[in-house]
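Narrative of activities, Objective 1.

The group set out to show that a structural description can be obtained from nothing but a protein's sequence at a throughput compatible with the screening campaign. Below is one input-output pair from the validation batch, recorded exactly as produced.
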Amino acid sequence: MSVGMLADTKTSWGQVSKSIHWLFVVLVAAEIYLGFWLAEEAPQAQLTGDDTLLLWLEIIHHTTGFILLIFAVFRLSWRLSNTTPDMPRAVVVYQKILAKAIHVTLYILMFVFPLSGWATSSVIGSEQFPVAINFFAFDVPELGFLRSFDPPYSTFSFQKQIHPICWWVGSGVL
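Output recorded for this entry:
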């Protein structure tokens, strides 16, 4: 494979861009499915005390979110440092504007979605019952500065809303 096939050109996306795109598609699909499953099953597991599977799946969910965040940084830097293929001439002006708006929205979501998950996990616990945030088996520091200084000393209700809003916005533009 030549170097020219790796990089983007004015006429086509290169293999790096295509690979990152499809890796994102697979990881996001798995992450969303797992996130919905955790939201449904986590309260039940906490009631029954059977949380071993839940803890492992949360580690996988957190790890995948951090991997997506790392790939988002790489993807954005690749996009900014490479040529972008031109849109076909037959595309109408409003379609170009709409395509650009959707692309910008998706790039914003690539950062806000995992960061909102990290933020939510950071404020969900308390000093007595902290929630572990993991990247593989390593603890990740919580974003404690997001906690409110006023009673009830947590911004969880606000943080909790951002993650599903990202889901609705993302599903709306796709």
